[in-house]
Write a structure and sequence with these properties.
Elements: H1 2-48, H2 52-56, H3 67-74, H4 79-94, H5 98-107, H6 113-129, H7 133-145, H8 152-166, H9 170-183, H10 190-203
Helix pairs in contact: 1-3, 1-4, 3-4, 4-5, 5-6, 6-7, 6-8, 7-8, 8-9, 9-10
Length: 204
């Protein structure tokens, strides 16, 4: 009898949790998603038009919309709030605020592997700007290896190669360039890859 009561109790708890979650999604989360999405559309519009400060709107400019920073702050639990972290990271980067860009990108959860690759690529770019070469390389390599493809993989190997080249680590640079030469013959900057390889081979 006691065991039966315990089972009924736990079943009741599970049911209550399930109902609570359903009500939370229906009456709280869904309306928030809709509001956040509306704000996101306007912020994206500002970004596409090149109005970076308005798109981010951290300083609460006199515009009728929140901007990416406001969406992240006001709607953190929504999908729009999450993707706004990505856009805010881009805005911070374009404004030269590289540490904030890194911070925002690290808080962004990317389910899509392609988007995740771009996320770590931007983090790598930001670390490059603040001269933290080790972290930059780490993130470029991570961006390249998340999922092998014809676009982001050679792009971030190329960035890793250029960074190594700039600090005169020619063997490391050649390593990444050779990977591109061997596996990605249609890479956009393939001609540059060949030139760098030729230069390094003459240098070593």
């Amino acid at each position: 009898m006691k065991k039966k009561k315990v089972i009924i109790f736990f079943c009741s708890i599970i049911l209550i949790i399930g109902v609570t979650f359903f009500l939370y999604k229906k009456f709280f989360l869904f309306p928030l998603e809709k509001k956040a999405l509306t704000e996101l559309i306007y912020a994206q519009k500002y970004l596409s038009e090149g109005f970076i400060n308005k798109a981010l709107n951290k300083k609460k400019l006199k515009i009728p919309y929140l901007g990416f920073y406001g969406i992240v702050t006001k709607y953190p639990s929504t999908k729009a709030g999450n993707i706004s972290k990505f856009y805010a990271g881009i805005c911070y980067y374009k404004l030269g605020n590289y540490k904030e860009s890194i911070k925002m990108m690290n808080h962004f959860y990317a389910k899509d592997e392609f988007l995740s690759s771009i996320k770590y690529g931007i983090i790598g770019d930001a670390f490059t700007q603040i001269k933290n070469n080790n972290e930059a390389l780490k993130n470029y390599i991570k961006a390249a290896n998340i999922r092998e493809n014809e676009i982001t993989t050679p792009l971030y190997y190329y960035k890793a190669a250029l960074l190594n080249f700039s600090i005169k680590k020619y063997r490391d640079s050649k390593f990444f360039l050779k990977k591109i030469e061997k596996k990605y013959p249609f890479f956009l900057y393939k001609d540059n890859v060949d030139k760098y390889i030729m230069f390094i081979e003459n240098k070593l």
